[in-house]
Amino acid sequence: MNLILEKQALQDLLQSWRQNYDVYLPQKLERFSHFMPLTETSVLVTDEPHNTRIPPKSLFLPMTEALVKFTRYGGYEDARHEIQPRIVFGIRPCDAQAVQLLDTSFIQDEYTDPLWLERREKTITIGLGCHEPCLNGFCTTVGYGPFNKADLDAILTDMGDVYLVETFSQAGDACFQGLPVAAEETYQEALAVQHSAHDQMPVAFETENLKEKLEQNFKNNYWDEVSQSCLGCGVCTFLCPTCFCFDIVDETQRRERVRNWDSCMFRTYSLEASGHNPRPSRVERTRQRISHKFVYWLDQVNQIGCTGCGRCVRYCPVGLDIRSMLRQAHSLPFEVSHAI
Amino acid sequence: MPDLNAIRTEAKRLLAEGVVDVVVAFKAGETPLHPQPAFFRSADEVDQLVYDGLCQNNLATFLTRVPKQSKVGMVVRGCENRSVNALVVEKQKNRADLFLIGVPCEGILDWQKIVGEVGETVKSVKENGQNLMIETKAGYQLLERHDFLHESCKRCIHPNPMSADILIGEALQEGDPNLARTAVETFEDQTIEDRYAWFQKEAERCIRCYACRQACPMCYCEECFVDHIEPRWSESGATPAGMQGWHIVRAFHQTGRCTSCGACERACPMDIKMTYLTEKLNHDMREKYNFEPGLDAQTQPPFAAVTLDDKNRFSV
Amino acid sequence: MQSNGRSLYTPIPMHVLRAYYESTDRSLKTLELSFDHAENSHAFFEAFNPGQFCLLSVAGKGESALGVASAAWEGDFVRFTAQNVGSVTSALHKLKAGDAIGMRGPMGNGFPLEDWKGKNLVIIGGGCAFSTLYALTKHVHHEDHRDDYGKLILVYGTRTSGLCMYKHDIAAWHENEDMEIHQAIDVPEENWQHHVGYVPDVVRQVAPSPDNAVAVVCGPPIMTKFTLPALDELGFAPEAIFTSLEKRMKCGVGKCGRCNLGPQYICKDGPVFSLAELNALPADL
Lengths: 340, 316, 285
What we know:
The structure holds three protein chains of three kinds.
Chain A: E1 2-6, H1 10-17, E2 22-29, E3 32-37, E4 64-70, E5 76-78, E6 86-91, H2 93-106, H3 114-121, E7 123-128, E8 154-158, E9 162-167, H4 170-175, H5 184-200, H6 210-216, H7 222-227, H8 235-238, E10 246-251, E11 256-261, H9 282-301, H10 311-315, H11 322-330
Chain B: H1 4-16, E1 22-27, E2 36-40, E3 49-50, E4 72-76, H2 78-89, E5 98-102, H3 111-118, E6 122-128, E7 131-136, E8 139-144, H4 151-154, E9 166-167, H5 177-188, H6 192-203, H7 211-215, H8 240-252, H9 263-267, H10 275-289
Parallel strand pairs in B: 1-4, 4-5, 5-9
Antiparallel strand pairs in B: 1-2, 1-3, 6-7, 7-8
Chain C: E1 12-21, E2 28-35, H1 38-47, E3 53-58, E4 62-67, E5 77-83, H2 87-93, E6 100-107, H3 113-116, E7 120-126, H4 131-141, E8 152-158, H5 167-175, E9 180-185, E10 195-196, H6 199-206, E11 213-218, H7 221-234, E12 241-244, E13 260-261, E14 264-265, E15 272-274, H8 275-279
Parallel strand pairs in C: 7-8, 7-11, 8-9, 9-10, 11-12
Antiparallel strand pairs in C: 1-2, 1-6, 2-5, 3-4, 3-6, 12-15, 13-14
């Protein structure tokens, strides 16, 4: 359904959802925006030309959460989490797409992560398309886009005084029940906004043959070159909407086994008890991070594992830019390398 | 701004004459706001070397990451020179294997402040004395340079490299030590509740990405205390205990070692203000021990030096 | 992988049935665990295949991935042998009979036993990585399964004779005419009656025929690395060579990310791979 939502009616609508849902939306925190629960006084931040700093993956995979409780006498039980029905409002298409990508890892028949699944089932996602695409983003390059609709119950298109609301599910319909239906003309205008946003995005790098180039240059000293100035921090991975690695650690004092976000850029990530580390330096770690997104995801689910949100570009403390790294990768020759 | 050509000429000479194996400096990034640390290994690469107020990293952090025996040239500002000195004191590098190209520093610009003022579409940034000329999609804008400095740079006491092998440009006036003192004392004047509330508010944003640690030249431990498994020194997750523990212990490990460069704060993706912790320690070092880390490459930090006439017995 | 309504990450309760040192230097300890609940036992043996591993859990220390060293026919228990290398394994070494312990598993693919039926098996092991091969040998050697396979050739090397695991069975196998066993130690010892030398050299010496045969290699990375070329020289095709990989693991179910080898997770898609499969994967071990 295509509906019209007056901008000035938005705040009331958001507040009305609070009766039945926890509502999360981007709000100002220090110098950036962050998904936080809606309160009576919350101010929606939609005019930020860029995205929330922490991607909304944190709403489905919290930075830290207990998995297991230790009971007395050496037993174990599932850690309990109260997960309320939620609406995530204002999620950008790149981040919604990322959540869909993460589903392919967390939801797999016999190996389904129960916490991820429950949060996903209880969450309605309402997207806000990017009518003024951000400068660091490159969503169209990786096959998605500023109005990508994957995994959204509804998406809003900013049209000045009003939003055009497109709903894609019953849950989405229910959220916007009672709003006037958009005239065909208005819908066409919205489509024009969407296409124009799409067309504004430049092609950041070539993706054709990129996977093969990366695969075949696994041992190229290209990796030494591009990782030279890397500090080895976790900014790119922690702020990445598709990075999902976690560590499992026992917190003795809390008598819990918890999972924490982890990063393949950390030394300890792959360090084995024997002292052997298959990825001993930033060279191998950088290669893993890039290859995971632009090679392995494609092997696994035939999708690029990067949605082009641009956070790693914007917040890398040393200005490393995945776009130029991949441009450089694309100019590499085809080579041949083998496992053992 | 020091003359870029003079920096390049010196860097080229060092590489061409084989004085050093590598020159660590900056090169242009993908956008004008993000120059990148760069490693120049031959004279003909040096034309890519840049230097401006947006070069936000402390290059001394790479000193412990290049092969130990290699001879390294480095473009250093006041803080970087102090970090290099402190690393030499800690025997992480021989001073004889270093050639420091010194540049007096007018303070590092905060790209987020610039973007906050003029928007995202920054095409170029020109620094001209006290002014910044920013070119955006909308046109040109003239800004007051000082307003866009990082806070740690506003308090800088020693903007000039003190032991560079060559100084490019004229030395600047030293900073006012009272600014650093006032910043600490103003914080100290708050009630304990307010200080704790501030600390909590800053620490709770931490995502434990360790960009602060990785950006810091003095954090060169092979294994950081947070990564240690037995015994475990700190709670692992993004919990209040974990986050506060990290920030406190990180700061304490810098006692008498932190050179107030502010690289930790500039690297933080969550805008956590953390130099107020190290600044307090630096303040105490100045007031109680008359010591500032990195002013020379010989003096041990007070907490690292043990002498027979120490007033207090060391209880280990 | 069993759930019983439990989360993927919650161990099932087990107790230590027997605990004993496996090597004379006490660096290897074997734990035999029994199930606290019969339904967990049923689910385990329904799913179990030699070559699989479990995550043993010590509350407060963490989990450690260990290959299963027992065959299903042995009884209602699961055997593991742990080398004392890290904080979890050192906690495992402190356990004694009657102690509670948690376990998740069985995990991973195990050996492709169905595909191997009718073939000669060349089983090559070194050090404590021999544990899953021990389970494999016990399985194949059992009277119910023995006829499914051709010749059974076992090569097992350890640094010293004291580090040889499962000595009782090994000794019995030497007497057995149904299988060929070649044991080796790295340096000569008094009264040692078998091979002296490294496993790759012993494999060359034994020279098993590649005809209608598969070779399974499990050992320290350096042994595996040099045994593969030896098998290649003998004419084993990459499709007929199998190995079990190890990497740091946490979740064991392909979620936490760290044990990937290219697009494959060693915990979920492995740990057993053929050399042909490995050749198609990046060298990231």
